Amino acid sequence: MLPKVILHTEVSVDGRMDWMLDDGFLYYRAIADWQVDAIISGSNTMLAAYPETDAPEMLAAPAPEKAPGLQRMLVVDSQGRLRCWRQMQQSEWWGELTLLCSNATPPEYVAHVKSLGVDVIVAGDDHVDLRAALEEVTARYGVAVIRTDSGGTLHGALLRAGLVDEVSVLLNPCLVGGISPRSTFVAPDLSSQEGAIPLRLLEVSNIEGDIIWLRYAVSKA
Ligand SMILES: NC(=O)c1ccc[n+]([C@@H]2O[C@H](COP(=O)([O-])OP(=O)(O)OC[C@H]3O[C@@H](n4cnc5c(N)ncnc54)[C@H](OP(=O)(O)O)[C@@H]3O)[C@@H](O)[C@H]2O)c1
Hints:
Blueprint: E1 4-12, H1 26-29, E2 38-42, H2 43-49, H3 56-60, E3 72-76, H4 85-89, E4 97-101, H5 107-115, E5 119-122, H6 130-141, E6 145-148, H7 152-160, E7 166-172, E8 199-208, E9 211-218
The protein binds NADP nicotinamide-adenine-dinucleotide phosphate.
């Protein structure tokens, strides 16, 4: 069975995910009362948050105890790029970690991650087969609802795979501009309207100051 996936994102009014004006972590404050079981992030998102490699003394120390009730963090990294698992384990923002990787992930990387006490799910031959991985997440942990905490690339993979049920967009009241693909949905260009994902409005609210929050259900065929 697949979990419900909520794509939660904050963008500028022109749809960019970078260089937005500071709003005091509204991205997290807005969803403080959400009941989700797990969070999913991509490797670029984690690299942006944790650019430093785990220090040897950090790795030598035992894994930190997690407070009960924190959501599981699912991290997609088929290429074995992350060297910050101990730092991620020390975060107060989530609970236990799971690496989602594929058969292409270097075995020594998987062994390293497991040695730190991190659970591992292998799905797919190249990139992670997200559908299979999420089915396993539900089977293994009883996870019913997941929200994203990621950039446009993982969003794009989840959306194109038809795995997103709801889209939650906080509109940061600014215009950023730019030509790089830093939108909330990064995926190969369509060649027609076929493939555009229809949405049904669930809620629109002006939650704080000039900030608008849009929530949509994804209409599935
Ligand atoms: N404004 C916001 O709301 C917000 C929230 C979170 C993050 N961010 C920002 O977003 C930026 C990072 O975003 P990003 O778009 O560069 O990367 P990302 O969303 O972190 O996604 C990268 C991940 O997508 C996976 N992926 C790509 N194509 C795939 C496919 N076809 N199937 C399965 N998995 C696939 C990659 O897997 P592999 O492991 O196979 O490479 C990689 O792990 C950071 O700067 C971060 O600060 C913004």
